[in-house]
Amino acid sequence: MMYSKSYKISDNYSNEADAVFLFGDASETLKTIPDASVKLIITSPPYNLDKAYENKKSLNEYFEQIEPILQNLIRVLSDDGSLCWQVGNYVNKGEVFPLDILYYPYFKEMGFKLRNRIIWTFEHGLHGKKRLSGRYETLLWFTKSDEYTFNLDSVRVPSKYPGKRNYKPGPNYGKPSGNPLGKNPSDVWKIMERDWESLFWDIPNVKANHPEKTLHPCQFPIELVERCVLALTNEGDMVLDPFSGVGSAMLAALQNSRKAIGCEKESQYIDIAKERVNMLESGKLPYRPLGKPIHKPSGKEKVSQRPLEWDLVTNF
After folding, report:
1. What is the pLDDT of residues 160-211, one digit of tens each?
2. Rg (CA), the chain
3. How many domains does the chain have?
4. CA separation for the pair 191, 174 (Å, rounded)
5. Do residues 206 and 276 lie in contact, with contact meaning Cβ atoms separated by under 8 Å?
6. How many CA atoms, within 13 angstroms, populate the side-chain half-sphere of residue 48?
7. For residue 52, is it within any domain?
8. What is the pLDDT averaged over residues 235-258?
9. Which of 238, 221, 243 is nearest to 43 (CA)?
10. Contact assessment for residue 243 and residue 3, using Cβ atoms and an 8 Å cutoff
11. If pLDDT is split at 50, 70 and 90, which confidence band does 4 have?
12. What is the CATH number of the domain that holds 59?
């Protein structure tokens, strides 16, 4: 739900700020964050796929470079906190290397415990020519300990048969057979208008005319982060994105009454992120609402003559 609110912003770590923007490489900026101060770390790290902001390197070099960052993440995460690591695949000469599988040993060695491996699927993307087109990414949910925040009621889904009652003789005869608040969703979700549970998290990726699109080439959908924020944190908790880009994870935290820290080494992305926070404050942030059904063209739509930029700002 979008609403107008004033946020306190800081360029240095401050427990009093709503949003903290740390400019520089995460391997250095993370050092300024106190131990055990973050409830949720959620990010989509560089994929080593030769994007505009990456220099392609071998997988060994890639993990050597990111391991010190992982060590800092476990330091800043609270004992009852969670880490959500969303990655795709590394592709080299047509061969696919699943990064979620390659990352797992690093997190396991540091003591993290995998709770769910969530599949995020989307309908649009680059079309493969010598293999099937990739249409999913993976989100690994780890916890630091066996005692962690998990707000099940915040992510329950409607029961398939809400009026169903126990029919077998016994003490529960005639009583509802399911939880009246809804059922526990599976670890693989599909997003629909009123039902999050099925086979996949079906959330559009941020491409083309998606309302949240900026100049960032690999942008996080706010909707994807919101589900993790609602389930794994409480109001007032701190959410950290060590590769924050244009601030999508930070926005998901702020609009749900959490605090946010973002680490980013590209100054232009920080500028965009701050502007998006300003737009959130005024209620004018282009945003795809949580649970909004995915548009399916009928083929009968009239082509609009309005500039694309106008549509992005005013339709949401």
Report:
1. 777 677 778 888 777 766 677 777 776 765 543 333 333 344 555 444 444 4
2. 20
3. 1
4. 32
5. no
6. 21
7. yes
8. 95
9. 243
10. no
11. low
12. 3.40.50.150
Count CA atoms closer than 13 A to 30's CA, side-chain side.
Answer: 23
pLDDT tens column, 199-224? 344 555 444 444 444 544 455 678 88
Question: For the residues of 214-283, what is the DSSP string, one character each?
Answer: -S-SSPPPHHHHHHHHHHH--TT-EEEETT-TTTHHHHHHHTTT-EEEEEES-HHHHHHHHHHHHHHHHT
The pLDDT assigned to 52 comes to 53
Mean pLDDT calculated for residue range 291-309? 45
Q: Which structural domain range is residue 165 located in?
A: 9-314
Averaged pLDDT score across all residues of the chain: 79
Q: Is residue 1 part of a domain?
A: no
Name residue 229's amino acid.
Answer: V
Residue 194 falls inside a structural domain: yes
Look at the block and give the residue holding tokens 């087109």.
133
Examine residue 124 and state whether it is found in any structural domain, yes or no. Answer: yes
- DSSP lists the bridge partners of residue 263 as 22
Q: Distance between the two ends of the chain, CA-based, in angstroms?
A: 11
Q: Which helix (H) or strand (E) holds 21?
A: strand 19-23
Q: Are 316 and 211 in contact (CB under 8 A)?
A: yes
Cα dihedral angle (49, 117, 194, 289), rounded to 10 degrees? -40
